[in-house]
Fold Gluconokinase.
Amino acid sequence: MMKYKLLVDINPLGVDLELIDENNQAQHLHVPFDDQGFAVQGLTQDDFVKAIKAGFEILESHLQDSDTIEHIEFTDIMNGWMALDETFKPLTPILMGDAQDEHFIEALMMNGIGGQLQRKTGVPLAVTLPLIITLRLKNNEPEIYKNTAHYMTLRAYIVYMLFGTNTATPAFAARTGFYNSEQMGWDTQALALTGVQPEQLPILVSDQALVGDLKATWLPKMINHKTVFKMH
């Protein structure tokens, strides 16, 4: 019986897994999102989920039934914003931002709203920022915008895959452009600008370690309710 720690890195090239045993010996595994190994633009939820599940399936084949993975750490998760319907079905590919959306930022900075938001949220406006991506949906894709019941980052979607909840810690909420770091909640001005309701965004939680009932049935059996999950 061997105890392991698993490091998970999700990046534009795919999913990288590093399995570390009690003797600090490491095994590395890479699963690309597609045959070309690079699928940032047009990456779908199915591509994303398929790569993660494939990585864990291969991982299971390398372990014995008596082995346990005691700790899983998501060391890095690439940026990405998801618009989903009431059943959490995605309405678009994973949204990474578009250079053509710079005009939204320019308009916000010219009328002073951009500066106000940056001071309250603590993050600069950029086309990859979920706030700007949502603003583009509102203006350019009204049908998708109208049918969106939930917004979440890729990190939040992983939490949803594992635990069936849509949550975010302040540290990760702050990266969306919707979070007011002084009031420690979703910013009313950002919500009004985009027309997003608080219930469409993740529930804010305080702890970075993930706790709760593990809902995922596709995980290897050596990953269970005793396994500690952590996000960076």
In short: The chain has one domain: 3-231. The mean pLDDT is 89.
